[in-house]
Amino acid sequence: SSSDDSMILQYLSKQKNNMAVLLRQKRPIFLFGGREVIQQITDSFDYAKRMMGMEIMPTYDFIAIAERMDESLAVLSLLLDLKAGDVVMMKDKPKSQGSWSLKSHAARPQCFFIPKTNISDTVRSYLSKDFVRGNADYLLYETAQKSLDKTIESLGKQRVQDRVDEIRQLETLIAKSCRNQVFYPCSDTGKLQLRRSRRDCYHKDFGCGQRCVNSVLNDIEQE
Length: 223
Known about the structure:
Elements: H1 2-13, H2 18-25, H3 36-43, H4 45-59, H5 69-79, E1 99-103, E2 110-114, H6 121-128, H7 136-155, H8 157-178, H9 194-200, H10 210-222
Antiparallel strand pairs: 1-2
Helix pairs in contact: 1-6, 2-3, 3-4, 4-7, 5-7, 5-8, 8-10
């Protein structure tokens, strides 16, 4: 409906430059004006571009890209001299009709359902035009992409691809072995199961399935 679209557009408009501001905030020490810089990044795209090269990108040793996560993990493991198993993870099974998630910031933890969304033409148009215009997050994304590509070239494309293949093989094995042994804070029916998930997840609903993943990796090492 038009009212739903209006609420979505209002929310999205507040998310422009969000990641650039977030990465700037996460710095342990604020330089060049402290917190005032955060507002300037939001208010001025030109200022955001300058800060991207002056401070945001040089601050971080590594930035992973969600759409290229296997490559990102492969590069990270090679840079830190880690094994493929040290960075492999249990991937969530795609939810075609939505999924249950943990609302941990409430007074009492509770599960809530996230339905699969259908993007209207109005919202789709906004995302492809107005949301992109003056949004430093897209500049950050492009910069991170180029940085990852350069790192892959320096490490050797075939070497990185071999590690990507190794990671994917492990992920396939883990998915097959652990799919029914993962306990999230919220079950598939929306039931809260924190006692189980605390033993199975690293933090809240992050890194769930780690016990089974570690068991599979240990079995591989002993073979």
